[in-house]
Give the backbone structure.
Amino acid sequence: MRLVVISGFLGSGKTTAMLCFARELTQAKRKVALIVNEIGEIGIDNVVLQQAGANVWELLGGCICCTLAGTLSTTLEMLATEYNPDIVLMEPSGASLPDAVKSGLRHVKQAPIEVSWLTLVDPLRLEELVAVLEPLMEAHLRAADAAIITKAAVATSEQLAAARSWVAGLRPDVPCFCADLASHEPQLPLRAILPCLS
Ligand SMILES: Nc1nc2c(ncn2[C@@H]2O[C@H](COP(=O)(O)OP(=O)(O)OP(=O)(O)O)[C@@H](O)[C@H]2O)c(=O)[nH]1
Ligand SMILES: [Mg+2]
């Protein structure tokens, strides 16, 4: 089972990216499952995501990197045995610690799960976030198999250049895309990214 983790700090565009990729995969007749983790008790993005035609499993009221690690394992095991999707897209909460999520995934008994990690970088807030949360921001990028700089249509060219250079400085080895996934025209299809994630 293929699992694509869409990670990034709070507000970086994870749900927007999931929606974009889920629509595209569903149109391509792929069986998609979405796992969304939110710290709060109420899942605010569920309805929007279901409108994309995908099945959504919400893990609420805790973080999959700690309190809900066991729930994540059982959810993935259930998906593999009972639902058998072609691809699972997962949005960890923006506050989760990437290394802890990764180590939790190693304990999933239902093998094999092929994990690809996509890290989203918000060019509008990068400078301010790195100033106060540098270790967490770097951990997100260190976990990545590929990076996407989001919000390209609303960022300035200076913000985009700064984001590109931050990614290249820390992870020159990963492919880095730049896109505006909130626009209605399909942009940066997941199939263009997936080969880089393998
Ligand atoms: N223009 C533009 N806006 C975006 C893009 N991605 C996200 N946004 C906007 O940024 C805000 C946050 O996007 P979300 O997709 O909810 O971000 P998130 O990472 O899921 O947020 P949390 O789940 O709260 O961590 C929303 O208002 C989106 O419409 C993008 O590529 N372009
Ligand atoms: Mg979200």
Notes: The longest strand covers residues 114-121. Strands lie at 2-7, 32-38, 55-60, 87-91, 114-121, 146-149, 176-178. The chain has seven helices and seven strands.
